[in-house]
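Hello,

Following up on my earlier ticket. Below are the four sequence lines again, exactly as submitted.
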Amino acid sequence: MIEAHLMRLRRLFPLNEAEEGVLRGLPSDSRRIPARRTLVHEHDLLDHSLLLTRGWLGRAKDAGSGKRQLTEVHLPGDFADLHSFTLKRLDHKIVTLSDVTVARVPHARLEELTADHPRLARIYWFLTNVDAAVHRQWAFLLGSVSARQRLAHLLCEFHTRLDVVGLSRNGIYDFPLTQDDLATCLGLTPVHVNRTLQEIRKTGFVEIRDRQVRIHDWPALAKLADFHPEYLYQQPSVL
Amino acid sequence: MIEAHLMRLRRLFPLNEAEEGVLRGLPSDSRRIPARRTLVHEHDLLDHSLLLTRGWLGRAKDAGSGKRQLTEVHLPGDFADLHSFTLKRLDHKIVTLSDVTVARVPHARLEELTADHPRLARIYWFLTNVDAAVHRQWAFLLGSVSARQRLAHLLCEFHTRLDVVGLSRNGIYDFPLTQDDLATCLGLTPVHVNRTLQEIRKTGFVEIRDRQVRIHDWPALAKLADFHPEYLYQQPSVL
DNA sequence: CGCGGTGTTGAGACCTGTCAAGACGTGTGG
DNA sequence: CCACACGTCTTGACAGGTCTCAACACCGCG
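Thanks for your patience. The regenerated structure is below:
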């Protein structure tokens, strides 16, 4: 069930059998939830974290004006709110962007895990820091980069992250987001996303069709996006 | 020397004497560096983190176009790159925004600390997660908020964070940033920062003069900024 | 069959960027 | 003491990217 999560971890850190066993024992239950629901509200007191096993989630901050900004999108294998283990209350919502399956991991179990397996504790600390790196990249994009480049970059990021868990093949991946969702990621209006998407489509590098992203020319797209995947920290680490 | 850092921690978590002793022993040395230098380059392999004891630092990401975006500003008492303890290489630069004094904390010492004092380990994990919360807030501001509100919000954030370490009194704090620096924080051009600053000055809520920020009407400024400090996680926590 | 969600298009407004020039203060060297 | 360079702040005119509002097309689904 948490196979995608283990794929992510194994790629970074070799796991021994004991560790894999502990990790498999983390979830207390698993539930399916439809798209467009709020799983966690800001400032709620939390006693568990959510491990995403299927579908897409987002971290959303809402403005008083009604505008919503996503600060990160979570893909299968991600902990959506591992940081609630230390923060206990979140400064943002967790929302479903598609139908999802999430496993609940009680903080009490993470408590045991970090006490008994310092190396796994470090790995999870690492993962929350990678989330922060993604936030930084998004802040950079939102503040300093054109709509076209931002959009191209986002499609590159999704491909690169999905590839790790086997959900993108040959630059093609299932893509549940609407243009409205893209707008909330990119700090744009849906209308402008639509126009930007058309522009990018015209280059022939990539297209979104039938809820799928198809990257036809990865080097060109990555160059257009100025995409450098180092910020995703997918290279093996020594801990 | 690391008094400001201890002030931050004590406000969140009561520290016993043993813990304070360990924390005081963290820095290996301390150095002064002038403004406008790069202390850490992206992708460098790091074996220590920087504890800021005086002055202001920034986390900067540079675009190919020459545009620079700050994703966080660090104030006295902050670890500027505690996350390098787990990441080892950063996806951004650390730059001085003013003359600063930084203490170097070898990762080896953090290694000992986290092994011997699990509670301090958790506290430092918490702090890196607060940095991520600040990134989220900035991403939100950059993506979904007007220049005026963004600027007002930034001045609110600085006040609130400086207050914890005793560096803002009655809404007045020393402010080393130029309008160019503000532009790199806010994703704006210096020209537009100038004009936005004039607008805000006209409200009478706050002004920047002689390298000082003077907040004359905090409630009004906070309202203008839609500032809610929860994302800074300054309330006492139980760990 | 009608409805809601999604995608598309057009016209015009507005926010922010670009480029250029000048004011002002400070420090430095002659 | 002056001359000058430099960083910073300010202002103006104009351009351009993105937003707003509105309307319509398309499609799956009840």
